[in-house]
Specification:
Helices cover 73% and strands 0% of the residues. The protein is an all-alpha fold and 271 residues long. The longest helix is centred in the middle third of the chain and has 31 residues.
Length: 271
């Protein structure tokens, strides 16, 4: 039996929250701080950072939790909060990614002006990005990834956080393409089913919403084809011409050239 997407997401959130509560309530031995340590919060944070660099997610998480929960006024607390999110992101399970989203969202809520707010925004996007599904499946996480990455672009323009800008824009493009692929597949399904008005509407909306869609050559070609099928040759011609203008390489170029030549000859009344 297929679990509805909304129920699946709710279940993951419930499981992640339950795991977090259990972890917080389960008796365990805290990592000891050597007696006489001048800066115990720094000691714990440094240990957590070292474990994080070694991808020891659980160990790093315990050190960071001690800083966050015990040293609430520590200058290391914001970074420890981010470290917690990074351990969940590194663990990369469905439940852990839900908890990562929670950590980065809370960081942005508690420390909106912190120097590392841009980093938190980027990692929030990545937590959603890692959960994106195939184009033919639900695109809720894709939309959330786009929302998070776009917020980064809007809030932290270069050179404010230039080190992350290129990576964010690249991931944003990938997420937008994933969402566009989903829309394209619907349009192509309509085309193959010979419901050309539905295909035309879907392709037009796609191209209007995202004129930079990486694989728009296919959308341009099949939009032109669908318009020809419903005898709107004059409207189809500009889409074929746009394909030829915008793409130096495409599997649709040769056929598009033939379509342009044919349509222009027909427009001039030539057989």
């Amino acid at each position: 039996m297929t679990i509805p997407v909304v129920h699946r997401r709710a279940r993951l959130v419930a499981i992640a929250v339950a795991l977090s509560v259990v972890a917080a309530c389960t008796p365990h031995t805290r990592n000891p701080v050597p007696p006489g340590t001048a800066q115990p919060d720094k000691f714990l944070f440094d240990r957590g950072t070292a474990a994080l660099s070694e991808k020891k997610w659980l160990t790093a998480r315990e050190f960071f939790k001690q800083v966050v929960e015990t040293y609430t006024q520590s200058p290391y607390r914001p970074d420890a909060k981010l470290g917690l999110g990074d351990t969940y992101l590194g663990e990369n399970t469905a439940e852990a990614l839900v908890l990562a989203i929670n950590e980065f969202t809370e960081f942005l809520s508690f420390y909106p002006t912190n120097d590392r707010a841009a980093y938190a925004q980027y990692k929030l996007g990545m937590a959603h990005f890692k959960q994106m599904r195939a184009p033919q499946r639900d695109q809720t996480e894709t939309k959330e990834a786009i929302k998070a990455f776009q917020a980064f672009v809007d809030r932290y323009p270069p050179p404010k956080d230039n080190a992350l800008t290129d990576e964010v824009k690249a991931k944003l493009r990938l997420a937008q393409d994933r969402l566009d692929d989903s829309d394209y597949q619907v349009g192509f399904y309509y085309f193959r089913a010979r419901w050309y008005p539905g295909a035309i509407d879907r392709f037009k909306i796609l191209l209007k919403q995202d004129p930079d869609y990486t694989r728009r050559d296919a959308a341009l070609f099949y939009l032109g084809e669908a318009l020809v099928k419903v005898k709107l040759e004059a409207e189809a011609l500009p889409y074929y011409e746009r394909l030829l203008k915008e793409f130096e390489q495409s599997t649709y170029l040769e056929e598009a050239r033939r379509r342009v030549a044919t349509l222009k000859m027909e427009a001039q009344g030539k057989p």
